[in-house]
Amino acid sequence: MGQYSITAGTFGKALAVTPVAIGALDARSAWEFENQSTLGNNYTGSQLYVGVQGNVDVILSGVVGVQDTVTSLNLDPIFSGANPSYAGFAAGSGYFTASNVGTTVVSSVHKSPANQPADLTVNITVPLPVLTLATAGSGYTAGNAFTTTVDPAGGAGLIGTIASITGGGATGPIAALTITKGGSGYSAGDVVDIVSTGGSNGKFTVATAANGAVTLAVIGNNAGSNYSVGDIITVDQAGSGGNCKFVVGSVESLMPAVGDVVRFTAVPVGTILPAAVAYVIDSGVTTGLVALK
After folding, report:
1. What is the pLDDT of residue 109?
2. When you count CB atoms within 10 A of the terminal residue's CB, does the N or C end of the chain come out lower?
3. CA 260 to CA 133: how far, in whole Å?
4. CB 204 within 8 A of CB 174
5. C-alpha–C-alpha distance, residues 37 and 35, integer Å
6. How many CB atoms lie within 10 A of CB 169?
7. Contacts of 73 (CB under 8 A, 6+ apart)
8. Distance of CA 161 to the CA centre of its chain
9. pLDDT grade, residue 130 (50/70/90)?
10. Residue 203 in 3-state DSSP?
11. What contacts 267, CB < 8 A, 6 or more positions away?
12. In degrees rounded to 5, what are phi and psi of residue 23?
């Protein structure tokens, strides 16, 4: 193919463009001989000749998606992905089951201030303690919240609601409790006073004390960015002991997304776009495009 001098520069080869959906981007080159496998749809910094007037949607060269998002968490007790290995999962205390909980991170890899890992959220599962009602008390109201005091001292943070009462009146002895947060520092056998507006003398005995230990953590609605395998994650839930930790198991960098698309509007026939293009996005109307290099 000959050399064609035009305003945008001199090009030695041309390739008919097939626009693709944003979800079908393939990082391999669309140009023959630039890779040794089935060709992708990355036009690797080409410029575009527009053969039919209309809108042209592109991803510009050099634009990438979110980098190093977390794809798995390592909850093994010893993280063996480093040499030497170091402590991995710690269940912590004072946590409660919740979704999209924020985290903090200590990175295993030095990064520039502009590329610090951030924004990972997690869904955590925390078993509740098992209680046995020891004394029903009197004057309690179904639906009221309760807190606790413990004798002997040590436990704190266990809360819930009075699920039901007996006696058929507006208030009465406790029939059942619903626990919403298991607290921490409790021991099996602790006798706990039930503190709720209007009620008195209700007590339960702790049969098993989970103490807010996390048993499972999975990635929440935000996988974050700029993480590395082995980064130490701490679950940052208000009221907890701030001591549930685990490490990042794997990461991946994403392709560009819808928000990265640049639209050239009503481009005239014969125009060469004044930009280096990586991908051409299917807008439903674009035809007659040629990539030039």
Report:
1. 87
2. N
3. 58
4. no
5. 6
6. 9
7. 122, 217, 218, 219, 233, 246, 247, 248, 249
8. 31
9. very high
10. strand
11. 50, 53, 54, 55, 56, 273
12. -85, 0
